[in-house]
Model the fold of this input.
Amino acid sequence: METTAPAPTTSRRTRRRWRIARRIAIGVLAGLAAIWLVLFITKGRFLKRPFENIVGGLTHRHVTVGGDFQLYFAPFRIKFYAERLAIANPAWATRPNLFTAARIDTRIAPLSLVFGKRRLYWLDLTDGAVDLEWNRAHDHNSWTFGDGKGGKPLDLPRIDRATVVGTQVRYLDPRLRLLADVKLDTIRSTDARIGQAVGLSGGGQLRATPFSVVARLLSPDATVARGKNELVLRARAAGNVLDVAGTLPSIAAFEDVPLAVRARGRNLATLLEVIGVAIPNTRRYDLHAQLVQDGPDYRFTRLRGTFGASDVAGRLTISNKERLHLDSQLTTRQLDIVDAAPFIGYNPDIVAEKGAIAAAAATGAAPARIMPEAALPVATMQRFDADLKWHIDRVRSKRLPIAEIDMVLDLDHGRLALSPLTMSMARGNVAADTIFDTRQRPSAVSYDIRLAPTPLGRLLAGYGVAEAGTTGTVRGRIQLKGRGDTIHDSLASSSGRIAFVIPSGSMWTRNVQLAEIDLGVFIQKMFEQELKEPVRLNCGLVAFTVRDGIAATDPILFDTQKNVILGRGGFSFRTEALDLAFRADAKKFSLFSGQSPVGVGGYFAAPSLNVISPQLVARAGVGLGLAVVATPVAALLAFVDPGDAKAAQCGPILAGKNAAAQRDKSGKPRTDVGNGTTDKGADKPRKKFLGIF
Done:
């Protein structure tokens, strides 16, 4: 018996499914058509409140439309129209709204809201205002929606045609203490092309310094299409001009983007003061660098340029974390000595035009003083930290040949250390460690300067000493500690020791000098302007003990081939007054001898040399009297030196020891030096000098 399959039943089920699907599709299309028709007729105005609620929920922001509202398909593009639209900022922001617009009218590609990049066929925006802010912790920004930490860059849609009028943009970064408020030029684009540069202008404040800014977007078409953004910007602040140029991946993305930066102005210190960094003043500068922002770090590489008549190159990183920190490494081929003047507090422009005395006066120093009274910027120094390594090939100077300077600077919570600072000076080496600790009030300052053996001919070539024929060398050390916020105050209160040792050698001068003060030699120098042979030095010591800013000779003692030269007196860091006297005692009989002291007085800025001292004038008067009552030959007796000077023992001199440790050739203590005097006999009362002791 044969049976047949129920094929008609399967076919009926398939047809039934198709009918259901068709009816559903027709229903959906009918529903969409009905929705489209309702929206088209009503312009979707009834969706105003749902729009505010839905968008507000998605963005976690309060959204309001204060005027007319339209949202519908026209015919296949979404038309969105809103008047007085406002999207709120997060609660921590300083302004209530992230975005406001008097009117926005746009056509949106529907599928772009779901797939791919958002696309606007056209946009008409009137009187828009955008407020972009970072929070104080710099872990949230106002344009990133949601509760997650972090901040995303601005993500602009593709816009085929646009008219944007009266747009204002405000940007606030509390970490940088930066506030910018700019206005965009009117923008009109067609077929996703603007066709001309778009400009913006405005100003703001960085820390406490106002600035103005002008910028131009040179490739606005690429910007509209979310491509490359060629930006040029010029800012002016505190007399400085800053130019920035670069290509941004998006209009608000600066991080990890190399930017070409140029800064120029009258004084680089005024530019860095804007961000709370204190450096010495400079003359006019012009610097170029590449800037890359990496989180809180701003790295300036390929740095090069000039300040005054000097050049500079290297790198600089400014970090803005818990404390502002500068880390830099610089090189200079040639440093003009005038450009180095700010390192000790001088204004270099005044030094170049009027000299050091005028520059010191400009800092508040008394008339005819040379030490500056410029105070350390204590408050600023305690707000930022810095590390600097600086190499200088050569210093351009008329008098001192200085080269190969290496300086290491460390500023840590107000403690500034220049340690070590080394240089080559006149084929000798100088090493220094200087500390300004502003954490102590007033600042605790220490100076430790060491001079390695240096040829006198090279060192004093600019001061009338002939290098040829001068074989002597000098070495020394200055150790002082004081308190004060200026160089003058720290030295005026300082105590310590200054000592320079001169081993055996020779010195040949072209002009009158404080050596070999023998009357016959002096007359020879005065008329012939030079010596027939160099001064022969066995050993010499110039040393001072400093107490409370007053330096007393301890001792000044030279032993030469012919004479023993002694010095007494001292100088004051307080008033910068000099009160020194030198006397040469001959070792052998001399017919013409100036046993009377030669005085050095005046001030650091204007020393005076009193070669014909009152004592010598008195002796000349005695000679004149003898010539009148006796014979002219008797007048010469007033200038006869019996030649009884005791040669010095060079051991204590070369060790730089104080006066109490000095010995004569026979090993006996010297009684003609010590306690700031050269009077014979240590027990004799001495005359006060500098009006102090």
